[in-house]
Amino acid sequence: MTRLTTQPAVDDDVVLLTVPADGGYLSVLRTATAGLAARLHFALDEIEDLRIAVDEACAMLLAVSRNGAELDCRFAVTEDALTVEVSVPTSAGAQLPSESSFAWKVLTALTTSASAGTANGRASIGLLTRRATA
Description:
Largest sheet: 5 strands, antiparallel
CATH topology: Heat Shock Protein 90
Strand order of the largest sheet: 1-2-3-5-4
Helix content: 25-40%
Oligomer: single chain
Mean pLDDT: 88
Strand content: 25-35%
CATH superfamily: Histidine kinase-like ATPase, C-terminal domain
Number of strands: 5
CATH architecture: 2-Layer Sandwich
CATH class: Alpha Beta
Distance between the termini: 33 Å
Number of domains: 1
Number of helices: 3
Structural class: alpha+beta
C-alpha cells in the first residue's frame, strides 16, 4: 500500500476502531469522522465531504471483504489534518475499483489525497484531508 505523506508524530492523536464489515456499522465510522473533523475546526461542508469520502471508501472495501470480516479504521489527528486509513481482509482474487472509476473520482474530489492498495490478503484505502485555511 502506498502510504500517505502525512504520518502522525508521537504526540498526535490516533484513534483505532474495529467494526464488523457490514454496512449497518458504517454510521459508527461516519460519526467518529465527523467528531474528529469538528475537533480540528473543519468547516461544516468539509466535515460532510469527509463523511461521504469515508463512507465511499468503506463501501469499496465491503465489496471485496471476506464473509465475517472486520473493518479496521485508523484516524490520525494532526494540527491541521485528519488521516483516515481503513482496511479489511479480502476474498480471494478480490480487487478494488480502478483509479479511473467513479467511486475513486469521488474519493479524490472530496479529500486532499487518497491512496489504495492490497497486501497480505488485505485491502486498504487511505484518505488525507487538510483543513482549509481562512
